[in-house]
Amino acid sequence: MNTTDNTKAFPSKELDYNQTILQGKTIYYDQDRGMELRDYFAAKENGKDITENYTISRAEEVLNRKIPSNNIELAKFWFELEARLQYMKADAMMKQRKL
Q1: Among residues 52, 55, 36, 33, which one has the least CA distance to residue 44?
Q2: Does residue 65 lie in a domain region?
């Protein structure tokens, strides 16, 4: 999901060191820095806890594909499910912030 709310979880200002050194004054300027709040919410969620009770059929439904039989692809499948669910929850949290 693309979100238009790019609120930063840890907003910061960048110190312009070149200006400080050359002109002897401190200049700060805004930059698009810091983790977006949506990413922060997703990262805070423990994906393992979310997927712990997921059945294969539920996982296939969420990812809209069949579970692979290859061990490496199987691991990727479960990792993708964890990430998808983490962002689904983050999106719900972002929606609630707007209410």
Answers
A1: 36
A2: yes
Entry pTM:
0.68
Look at residue 2 in the predicted model and tell me its pLDDT. 47
Please give the single-letter amino acid code of residue 93: M
In a domain, 63, yes or no: yes
The range of the structural domain enclosing residue 58 comes to 35-97
What burial class does residue 6 get, using C-beta atoms within 10 Å of its C-beta: 0-12 exposed, 13-18 middle, 19+ buried?
Answer: exposed
Q: What is the spatial distance between Cα 47 and Cα 4, in angstroms, rounded to a whole number? A: 24
Q: Provide the domain count of the chain.
A: 1
Residues contacting 6, CB < 8 A, separation 6+: 36
